[in-house]
Amino acid sequence: MTTAVLEAEELTKAFGGGRSLLGAPKPVIHAVQDVSLTLNEGETFGVVGESGCGKSTLARMLVGLSTPTRGTIRIAGKPFDRHLLGATAQYVFQDPVSSLNPRHTVRRILEAPLIHLKRLGRDARAARINYLMDAVGLRPDFLERYPHEFSGGQAQRIGIARALAAEARIIVLDEPVSALDVSVQAQILNLLADLKARFGLTYLFISHDLAVVEAVADRVAVMYFGRIVEEAPADRLFAHPHHPYTRLLLDSAPAITGKRIDAGEQPAELPDPLAPPPGCAFAERCPHARADCRARRPPLAPMGPYHSAACLYPLNATD
Amino acid sequence: MTSAAGIAPPAEAPPPARSAWRLILRNRLAAAGLVVLASIILLALVTPLLPLHPPNATAPANRLLPPFSDGHLLGTDHLGRDILARLMWGTRLSLAVGISATFIAALIGSVIGILAGYTGGRTDNTMMRGIDMLMAFPYILLALAIVAVLGPGLFNALIAVAIVNIPFFARNIRGATVGIVHREFIDAARLSGKGRLRILAADVLPNVLPVIVITMSTTVGWMILETAGLSFLGLGSQPPQADLGSMLGEGRRLLMNAPHVSYLPGLVIFLIVMSINLLGDGVRDALDPRLRAGALARPAPMTAIDRTDMGTDVAPVDAPLSVDHLTTQFRLGSDTHHAVNEVSLSLGRGECLGVIGESGSGKSVTALSLAALVASPPGVIAGGRVLLHGSDLLSKSARELRKVRGRDVAYIFQDPLSTLHPQFTVGDQLVEAIRAHRHMSRAAAWAEAVRLLDLVRIPNPRGRARAYPHELSGGMRQRVGIAMALANAPEIIVADEPTTALDVTVQAQVLDLMDELRRDRDTAVLFITHDFGVVTQICDRVAVMYAGRIVETGPTRQVLEDPAHPYTRKLIDCVPVLGSGRRRFDAISGLPPAANRLPRGCAFAERCELADAACRAGPIAMHEIAAGRQARCVRPLAGTS
Prior knowledge:
The complex is a heterodimer.
Chain A: E1 4-16, E2 28-40, E3 44-48, H1 55-63, E4 70-75, E5 78-79, E6 89-92, H2 106-116, H3 122-135, H4 152-165, E7 170-174, H5 182-199, E8 202-207, H6 210-216, E9 219-224, E10 227-233, H7 234-239, H8 244-252, H9 291-295, E11 301-302, E12 308-309
Parallel strand pairs in A: 3-8, 3-9, 6-7, 7-8
Antiparallel strand pairs in A: 1-2, 1-4, 4-5, 9-10, 10-12, 11-12
Helix pairs in contact in A: 2-3, 2-4, 3-4, 4-5
Chain B: H1 16-26, H2 28-46, H3 83-119, H4 121-136, H5 139-150, H6 154-181, H7 184-191, H8 196-232, H9 244-252, H10 260-287, H11 289-295, E1 304-309, E2 321-332, E3 335-347, E4 352-356, H12 363-369, E5 379-388, E6 391-392, H13 398-404, E7 409-412, H14 416-419, H15 426-437, H16 442-455, H17 461-464, H18 474-486, E8 492-496, H19 504-521, E9 524-529, H20 532-538, E10 541-546, E11 549-555, H21 556-561, H22 566-574, H23 613-617, E12 623-626, E13 629-631
Parallel strand pairs in B: 1-5, 4-9, 4-10, 7-8, 8-9
Antiparallel strand pairs in B: 2-3, 2-5, 5-6, 10-11, 11-13, 12-13
Helix pairs in contact in B: 1-10, 2-3, 2-10, 3-4, 3-6, 3-8, 4-6, 5-6, 6-8, 7-8, 8-9, 8-10, 9-10, 15-16, 16-18, 18-19
């Protein structure tokens, strides 16, 4: 039986807004709108989208780095407690080097969560740090070095060790391998899979790379312009996408197998966030859009077992 | 660029503080400033121990003695006081006041700056507007007003000078803090359970400390001057106490008949402020990361060329571009980084050759070396030839080379936002590119620019020509980059990761466009990338680079389906392929060798399961393994049958 470890309901994050000193209203940009999702214990939930789709903003809200404008987050059934920041859900950053304080040694970086979240004594800390270094495959003599002495892959291992330190079971991985070379990317993805099995972790895995998400995720949500447009088990989503945007993403990805990419005819531009369209945000790029797509926004609706999409005229609707 | 490739041993990575000292001492002016300042401070410190006259003892009989008088080395002033003694004690006092004022201003200003920068929003606004108001007064007027309220006296002058300089610190430190607060390691610190104060003290402060030190070192001289100024006006030290400013003030009335009374303190003020400023500049250059990265070096119009080996003497194959044993190094002090090692390749008419490799493999440096665009120093082309229709580009002068760049060989770079000038419209920049090589009126060039924008399928080209780069999306900007490369119909385009910064749907369109344009115009393309998927879409042939060498080359399909070099094989196995479901990857263990310590033999041997003694013994040559296919391996995986 699956148990939900994290439930997010109708999360919305708006930037700007309010009034200036002179009383003129400032423009509002909705980075994330009405996103609901559930993380089940032990799964890897993939979130796919291109730049500007709101996936990083969503991730920051889920771990508590940013406060939602609207909506609720429940962790293990209880509302999110800001005092537990870092204790239940941790974060692995995209840029491994800039997520480590350049003036701290690796030991000091890894000690911080043990001191402030776990309140461990000196000996317990040293033992735990050695255990963590071993778990992420780094030599203990790296502990006294500074972040700039490490390569991207090694720095990302330190970032992962930091996220594991406080024994949070939910790890949000924000593009954890997109800054890495492909051979290092493979090492880190394998490490993440091993750690998940070993510590019983639940992952929210954010990426722009569909092939990576397909290789790691159990379920996948596709985001476009701040909303989830499709959500399904990974195998179903990649085999039978219902939303035309998911189709376009799949067709655009260049593959080593040599299949020709299909670029789509429409210019690949997002709508103006200051003047969002009333209907489907993808309509301007969609080859199947009709008049009513532009008039009203399609809701995220179920379209088969565990599969939902926000499209009025979904693809593959018959299967 | 290669420093990320491996962990440097501790001996090669001295702690930042020590290397900063070395940088200061290497700067001759700063070192001179340091010597002068240290001597002055030392003298000021030992003044009470020296056998000097009492500085305030008057002797009217000996008034206004000239320098080198008996018993008074620097003479006496209008009350017969010994100038040497007063100078020493005065210097001591002026330094103490100036330095204390600096510390007070730095402390208060930094606290305000860090709090404002970290808190942001309304607090920030309120604090900084207060600082702005303080800055709106002319500083000397403000200091005078403060002294007028507090009453004259050296301590009050100190307070006034400190207050006047707080805004300077607050602004600088706030700017530095804002830049740090949004860095990811601050988020990481929050997730480590640290409170706000702890983050300020342990994470923000150590990172803004260099800015505080720089600001202090550049303002302390100024603060000493301001204190002297107040004393000169009679608002600082009160008689008979001597500081440099008040000595100058007293000497002013005697300028005509006893100039030494005012010249001497003036000279000391000059020496102090000059030495502090020289040292301060040195400190700034050493601590400022941008300056340390060599931003001060004057960029050369072309890469330094110091060729010991001119490549093979074989007549060039009949190709528009052929590269023969090209070797590029980065010479940093005594260290040589071998970025590109004897790379040979040829590019046929209308052909697209992909150069693929991981970061640090030397693929981008190869691309830049073709037109001698590698920054010098530290880049040096140490060998080989780049033949454009048989004539060696690397033998040309910078002037001749400039005619080739953009006309015969054009470049497309990864990030169009940083390669397009932000303050000119894209149309203007295209016009400039066109007119650099063709005699054409501005109007005709503008029409040509619009035609080029239309060619790269930018909607509404007439309107978009008047847009600035920031008004366009990433994909549109890269189309402008392509239009610029096509402006003079070059025979060869070098595209250095042109789609890496783009989203996948945009990348697909840009690749489509490039492929179509190169076929229509029969342009040869050298396509640098790290992405095998991209290579399959656009390249006829591919060359795989590792540790600065080409390890395998051949037709794209053959290399990807049946790789000959173990590195190529393993790299391909690492690539996630869409449609293969959940899986583990076959990772390559270990890291590439550091470019300043390349092994004698095969650079991949350490990571290769098939390697044996023969692989490590010495350089491995390229072998022909099939028609049009070569591999740098003693036991290639393919083509041997």
